[in-house]
Amino acid sequence: MAVRDPPPLAESALYGEYPFLPGAEALAEEMAVSVRGLLEDGAFEVSREIGRARVLAAADDPRGTSTIEELSRAAPEIQFLSFLFARLVLSAAASPAPLRRWAVAESKRAHARLRSSSIEELGEVARRLGYPITELASSEVALSLTDYVRLAVPIRDAEFRLGSQDVRHGQVEVSRERAARLLQEAVRSELARPMPIEEGARAAIRAREAALLEEISRRVPLPVARPGANTAELRPDRFPPCIRKMRRSLEHGENLSHAGRFALAAFLHRAGADLETIVDAYRGAPDFDESITRYQIDHITHRDGGKGYEPPECATLRTHGLCIRDGDSSGPTPLDRARDPLCFEPFLRHPLQYYRLRGGRVLEGGEDRAGGGSPTSRSEEGSGTGSVPARTPSTDPRQ
Ligand code: SF4
């Protein structure tokens, strides 16, 4: 017997399942909910409770696999309000990292449903997100080349490279499963942007939900350099521009490619950072998972009698778009924004060489052995599968 698509969702159920869709706010219009009402009114306590559960589930598990029982049983209006509450609270948080982590978890929750949804539901969600797809006779779907590139660029899985796709007449043809993954990216990037909140409302949210915000910062701590025997000589101010930029990206809760994650862990190890300090550097990653990160860093640093994998040399980092020698226009200090003359010296070929020349101490086996020894392999797509690739990634800069 042929497998049939599930029946299409009613409008309200669609908004409950996908509360980020434009128009979902119509679910709450009859209730005339204000921000203050959502924060304080006893009538919305259930929505707040489920909203808090959404936030905490994401803090613990950015893979979005945690089941929130109350959410699956809730009416669409409550599903939407709990989503709105969670987004408001996280948009008011001092650090953007928890919001970005929540965006990963919520987008994965949506993906889990989309990948087994009917073609009608997939198409409807895609259309409302602004990325229309067309059903093809081959049971695949097509979307415009522009939309494909916009959605696929942040995905680090090599299968999403444009060169591996079927492109016909300006349309990219993909499986329904792949289309669901692309839409996951659309949701993630949308939810990772904080909602605009007036200062008064922000202060009220922070005051009302102080306990929740405190709990989030406990569960998603910011990276902190720890003093320790191995790290006493670490000189982050002497790190090369590429490494400083990688650390800033993670501190700000931004995604860092597999190549960047690998390079950072391998560099920090050679610069003398201990395991805890290296793990801390990844805490801001939107998909940070402590146990997986520890496992992967352990793998990178214990190879070859503790020397670890070789950090990539400058030429490799340039291939991955990670060389920042021209300066980082968004950098916080004039030093970060400026072109770095040392990086343009013809003899400079390795970030560890830069660090040593700036007065940093490098453990034995540093830049002299750069570029060799690491197998070329690709880890699975990063979001939710871990924070650091276990091996040197391939040369695809999008991974
Ligand atoms: S030249 Fe080398 S050390 Fe300098 S930013 Fe580029 S990759 Fe880093």
In short:
The protein is mostly helical and 399 residues long. Helix content is 48%, strand content 3%.
Cofactors, ions, other ligands: iron/sulfur cluster
Total number of β-strand segments? Answer: 4
Supply Rg. 23 Å
> Order of strands across the biggest sheet?
1-2-4-3
**Main sheet properties:** 4 strands, antiparallel
Distance between the termini: 39 Å
> Could you spell the SSE succession in H and E letters?
HHHHHHHHEEHEEHHHHHHHHHH
What proportion of the residues is helical, as a percent range?
A: 40-55%
Percent strand equals under 5%
Structural class comes to mainly alpha
Shape: globular
Residue runs with pLDDT of under 50 for 5 or more positions: 224-229, 366-386, 391-399
How many domains make up the 3D coordinates? 2
Number of helices, where a helix is a run of at least 4 consecutive DSSP H or I residues? 19
Mean pLDDT: 83
Structure description:
A four-stranded antiparallel β-sheet has the order 1-2-4-3. Residues 224-229, 366-386 and 391-399 have low confidence and may be disordered. It is globular. By secondary structure, the chain is mainly alpha-helical. It folds into two domains: 11-191, no CATH class; 222-369. α7 (97-114) runs antiparallel to α10 (176-191). It has helices spanning 11-17, 26-29, 35-40, 45-60, 69-73, 76-91, 97-114, 119-129, 145-152, 176-191, 199-208, 210-219, 241-251, 258-270, 275-281, 290-306, 314-319, 334-337, 351-357; strands at residues 134-135, 141-144, 166-168, 171-174. The protein is built from 19 helices and four strands. The longest helix has 18 residues, at 97-114. A hairpin with a 5-residue loop joins β1 and β2 (141-144). The site of iron/sulfur cluster has 12 residues, from α13, α17 and α19.
